[in-house]
Design goal:
Distance between the termini: 107 Å
Strand content: 15-25%
Number of helices: 15
Radius of gyration: 28 Å
Helix content: 25-40%
Shape: globular
Structural class: alpha/beta
Oligomer: single chain
Largest sheet: 8 strands, mixed
Strand order of the largest sheet: 4-11-10-9-8-5-6-7
Length: 458
């Protein structure tokens, strides 16, 4: 280094170890760095949102935020749009569930970090609760997550790479597409059939599978349809997956929320070869969506997932440190001690409201409700040619708010136009009043088809 260089540099000190025999001496060493070489200076601010954030779109929010929702000031608002059973306070969780949480807090054991996949004891509780002789589980088969939504995100993330595709039900829960598209994963929509109580069009579904298909998502019981698949139908779905070597992501968050006379079947015990990631949680059946407790159950009896998928799920779960530790502390008691009467009361209420809604709207000109078998929803078809004032289901539901202060979710939000979804968790008197208002709205706007009027003339 020459003298002119030495005048244009700054000294930076750091410690250097010098080892002599068994002793270690720390010596401060000076080195010289030109500050202009430390980084390339930007001349202006260029902060931009990431491509992932730009590609993240929730269809429900996109549609609802764009609607002109000005309720009729003379009628109190009835919101039948939000899939949250706690909104009106008429469906509280059981006292056993609340007591378990209080005891977890009072124990002072759950105030710190838990393992990213959840406490061992909590994972054991979930494994024991869902284990079946045909599909046994142990704690290593359980990944706890921050709600079922995060469980679904982890499952998609571990199975798919950008450029892959996933098969998603139509109509279906919008989150699948929101997550996939943000990750550069293509979404292929397979049809559900309203005339067959929303069973899957198996032929259509299988026609979509190609070498880039990374997983098949099956939502049973269904949001938004309220449908529950029979054992036989689930076996046919699994046959398609088996024949094409496609793993299944089973969204079973509404598991066991089925009406009397209808049976719910977990997918995993029905298959001996198809690897399945089953996603569930406390949100719906236990009526505590805000507690954010979900899980993934890994069913892999033929070791198709192997260690790689399990290790991938563990690594992905380490991006955040798992779900709420207090809820984990209460989980074993919640699963094992919630009385069956609590579940039965909830289901009885949902069935009663569904029957009221179906019965009332079945006789409304221009509407075709599809009776659900479970979950918390009913889908209603709109014969749009009888309502020429409205271009689509979004305009129809928008005007329903303006004139009647009843807000239903247009099924365009679920990629299924000319239907709307009703949430049946509202108090019964509110359900009845909403149906009266919907009838009044439809009667006012209903117009016979031109051929219908011609037939009347003759």
């Amino acid at each position: 280094m020459n003298e002119s260089q030495s005048h244009t540099i700054h000294s930076i000190g750091f410690n250097k170890k010098i080892i002599n025999g068994n002793s270690v001496h720390h010596v401060n060493v000076k080195t010289h760095v030109n500050p202009t070489k430390l980084k390339n200076h930007r001349s202006r601010w260029t902060v931009r949102a990431s491509e992932m954030s730009k590609n993240t779109l929730n269809p429900i929010r996109a549609i609802v935020d764009g609607m002109k929702l000005t309720p009729n000031p003379d009628k109190p608002m009835i919101a039948l749009s939000i899939g949250d059973p706690t909104v009106f306070g008429n469906l509280p969780t059981d006292d056993t569930v609340l007591q378990a949480m209080k005891e977890a807090i009072d124990s002072h054991k759950y105030n710190g970090y838990a393992p990213s996949v959840g406490y061992q004891k909590s994972r054991e509780a979930v494994a024991n609760f869902y284990s079946r002789p045909e599909a046994p589980l142990d704690s290593n088969d359980v990944i706890l997550a921050s709600g079922c939504s995060q469980a679904i995100e982890l499952a998609i993330s571990v199975l798919c790479n950008p450029g892959d595709n996933i098969l998603v039900p139509c109509p279906g829960f919008s989150l699948y597409k929101t997550l996939a598209v943000s990750m550069g994963i293509q979404v292929k929509l397979y049809n559900l059939l309203p005339e067959k109580s929303w069973e899957i069009d198996l032929q259509h579904m299988e026609s979509l599978i190609d070498e880039k298909t990374a997983c098949l998502i099956v939502n049973n019981p269904s949001n938004p349809c309220g449908s529950v698949f029979t054992k036989e139908h689930l076996q046919k779905i699994l046959s398609v997956a088996s024949r094409n070597c496609v793993p299944v992501l089973a969204d079973e968050i509404y598991g066991d929320m089925v009406f009397p006379g209808c049976d719910f079947h977990l997918m995993a015990p029905l298959s001996s070869d198809v690897p399945i990631l089953s996603c569930g949680g406390l949100a719906k059946r236990w009526l505590v969506p805000g507690w954010r407790m979900g899980w993934i159950l890994i069913h892999d009896r033929n070791n198709i997932f192997g260690n790689e998928i399990r290790e991938g799920l563990v690594k992905l779960s380490q991006r955040i440190l798992g779900p709420c530790t207090v809820v984990q502390g209460a989980l074993e008691t919640i699963l094992n001690s919630t009385p069956s009467e609590f579940y039965q009361r909830t289901i009885s209420f949902l069935k009663s409201n569904s029957e009221i809604c179906f019965s009332e709207l079945s006789t409304v000109p221009g509407l075709n409700p599809v009776m659900p078998s479970g979950a918390m929803y009913i889908m209603v078809g709109i014969e749009m040619d009888h309502f020429p004032e409205f271009q689509n289901d979004v305009e129809f539901t928008e005007r329903l708010v303006t004139e009647q202060s009843v807000f239903c979710l247009p099924a365009t939000a679920f990629e299924y136009p000319n239907f709307f979804r009703i949430v049946v968790t509202v108090p019964e008197e509110m359900m009845v009043e909403a149906c009266i208002r919907i009838r009044e709205f439809c009667t006012h706007h209903y117009r016979p088809r031109s051929q219908d009027s011609n037939e009347l003339d003759h």
